[in-house]
Design brief:
With 291 residues, the protein is α+β, with helices and mostly antiparallel strands. It is 18% helix and 36% strand. The termini are far apart.
């Protein structure tokens, strides 16, 4: 009997030890998000990125076809750093719609892969789409080597009030639209490739967090999701159109037609989990908190 009691006691203590060790297990979520980071621009120390695996400089170009005319730095008078008005610290303010583009190069800042490509893009916006935006489509971010309709990842506001907010993860144009007729943005085949929300939660006096998650692109089972304020708002599955880039020509364009505040741009080399998205959204001092 004594032997049985001792055995039961030892067994109980072993179970208790395992339970205590499990409960004390360190939460590595912040470290995991940091390890996936490939690019981060807070706009607190100017326009260059705080962290980048590739070129951290911002460029300005008059149009996409004039890449040889690109200038290092911010050369658009309608865009400026605004002190203390960012989501955390300073932010990037777009004051009007104008010609020209600003961008960070994609190469090495995005973990592009020709066979199985995953990643995430995070940033914050502050605007009233109904009163701040001028007529026409507006893309707060667009990542591509050609345009919105050809191997591109973006979010946009539709062109008329009330404006929808949409996610576009669009593969090679010559595959999804080999015989183009009329504008692509009105093509039903194109529209079917989008997901998004009506009456999105933006406001003049509030910041809104946007996260684009994508996984397994350049396979037959690609997927892309839109999160707003850490809530899943839409997902596309079975994305099988290829995304073929000339990586040296691909850029992370900011503020196409956008009027409002933009802050805390960060990119990751894999899709984030829902828990990681929650953590990223709730960081007290933004991505700086990860460091």
């Amino acid at each position: 009997m004594l032997h049985n009691k001792n055995t039961l006691t030892i067994l109980f203590l072993n179970i208790l030890t395992v339970a205590l060790l499990s409960s004390c297990k360190t939460d590595t979520t912040n470290a995991d998000v940091k390890a996936a980071l490939t690019f981060y621009s807070s706009f607190d120390q100017g326009i260059d990125a705080d962290f980048a695996l590739g070129d951290k400089q911002l460029y300005t170009v008059p149009n996409r076809k004039a890449r040889d005319s690109a200038q290092v730095g911010l050369h658009k008078p309608d865009i400026r750093i605004t002190k203390g008005e960012g989501r955390f610290g300073d932010g990037l303010l777009f004051t009007e719609r104008s010609k020209g583009y600003i961008y960070y190069p994609s190469k090495d800042n995005i973990s592009y892969n020709t066979t199985d490509w995953s990643g995430a893009v995070s940033f914050w916006l502050k605007l009233d789409p109904a009163t701040d935006l001028e007529p026409g489509y507006c893309d707060p971010i667009q990542i591509t080597d050609v345009s919105y309709n050809d191997a591109s990842i973006w979010v946009d506001f539709t062109k008329e009030n009330p404006r929808d907010f949409r996610l576009g993860v669009i593969g090679d144009r010559d595959v999804w639209n080999p015989n183009p007729e009329g504008p692509d943005n009105e093509n039903p085949v194109f529209i079917e490739k989008l997901t998004g929300v009506k009456n999105p939660p933006f406001g003049k006096d509030q910041w809104t967090h946007i996260l684009i998650n994508y996984s397994n692109l350049n396979t037959k089972n690609g997927q892309a999701s839109l999160y707003i304020n850490a809530e899943l708002k839409g997902t596309r599955t079975n994305i099988d159109t290829p995304f073929t880039w000339d990586l040296d020509l691909s850029n992370i364009y900011l503020g196409l037609g956008y009027v409002g505040l933009f802050d805390e741009l960060s990119l990751y080399n894999r899709a984030l989990t829902h828990k990681e998205i929650d953590v990223l959204y709730a960081l007290e001092n933004g991505v700086h908190s990860l460091f």
